[in-house]
Design goal:
With 116 residues, the chain is an alpha+beta fold. The chain is built from 4 helices and 4 strands, in the order E-H-E-H-H-H-E-E. Strands 2-1-3-4 form a 4-stranded mixed beta sheet, sandwiched between helices. The radius of gyration is 14 Å and the shape is globular.
Length: 116
């Protein structure tokens, strides 16, 4: 198996549950605290491609920054939305697990098992 990576927020219960699920299965993922080390816009674009979704599907639309930054504006393109996700990583849905050339959002945590 390729490297397993989890974009993790230790304060998020779903993120902690997903990490525990991986560890229970003997998988020691590389843990990236994406709030401290946000993925670049290019890395986010690659993650979106693996997920098969567009940027807004990865955004936490309930965060204040989403409204404050006007990210619901349909005129914003992919590049602008990716730049916003990079600059404001709190907006990124969590956790995201990358494995075997695929990606999954751990909501619910068991969803990540599909890509292992």
């Amino acid at each position: 198996m390729d490297d397993v990576v989890i974009l993790h927020n230790p304060r998020c219960s779903k993120s902690r549950a997903t990490l525990a699920l991986l560890e229970e299965r003997g998988i020691a993922p590389r843990v990236v605290d994406y709030l401290k080390q946000p993925p670049t816009a290019a890395e986010l674009g690659a993650i979106l491609d693996k997920l098969g979704v567009e940027p807004r599907a990865l955004m936490r639309t309930d965060e204040p920054e989403y409204r404050e930054l006007g990210l619901d504006d349909p005129a914003l393109g992919r590049a602008e939305l990716l730049a916003a996700l990079h600059a404001h990583p709190r907006l990124i849905q969590r956790p995201i697990v990358l494995a075997n050339g695929k990606a999954a959002i751990g909501r619910p945590p068991e969803r990540v098992l599909e890509i292992l």
